[in-house]
Amino acid sequence: IKTSMRGVIDKIAAKFDSNPKAAAFMRQIMQGLLDVEGRDAATTYLEELSPLAAVQNIGLKPGDVRRDDETNPNPFGGKAFKTNLTTRLDSYDDKTGKARFLRKREFDKDSLREAIADIVRKLAAIGDNKTITPEMMEMMKKVNFSIEGETVYDLDNGMTVRIDDRDFMTASVMGTTFTKQQKKTVAVTRQN
């Protein structure tokens, strides 16, 4: 995946070959997205939380939905992104003490659009009239970028015993679309 992403980065930067500063700037921005891994990926793309305690004692009853907004660091170094969270109690069995919560995350589209606009402004500042043509500006406005995810929390007698987390990132840039999907499962077992 990283090899194909590097190819996408090279293709995008090649569009700016007439202005080496602009090409370097685009490489730097795109490389920043590619190089994010592990713990940094969590703080860059996802809300910071203690996963095992995220839904414990949150007070939701069957049918209740909680909507929250969080801010997340911007990997481009600009204004922080707003994330919309929706959490609901999906199922609950009073006899067994088992419960299932669903939490959906979506990065606010306006925050993502503002980040793209910020990139265009920075690129225009280091560009020249030959590099940043009206067509190029229009093309940059058409960049589509989304980050969303869903987490399923299974609880047994108030303790989180399993978390299934799926994240999706999609970007369409200069006629090329790439998607990154990630799934992570955390299972907790009790030892006597």
Strand and helix map with partners:
Elements: H1 2-14, H2 20-34, H3 38-45, E1 65-72, E2 81-93, E3 98-107, H4 109-126, H5 134-141, E4 144-156, E5 159-173, E6 176-187
Antiparallel strand pairs: 1-2, 2-3, 3-4, 4-5, 5-6
Strands of the widest sheet, in order across it, are 1-2-3-4-5-6
Describe the biggest sheet? Answer: 6 strands, antiparallel
Estimate the strand proportion: 35-45%
List the secondary-structure elements in sequence, H or E.
Answer: HHHEEEHHEEE
Helical residues, percent: 25-40%
Keywords:
192 residues; alpha+beta; six-stranded antiparallel β-sheet; 5 helices; 32% helix
Describe the structure.
- With 192 residues, the protein is α+β, with helices and mostly antiparallel strands.
- 32% of the residues lie in helices and 37% in strands.
- The protein has a 6-stranded antiparallel sheet with strand order 1-2-3-4-5-6, with helices on both faces.
- The radius of gyration is 20 Å and the shape is elongated.
- About 3% of the residues have low confidence.
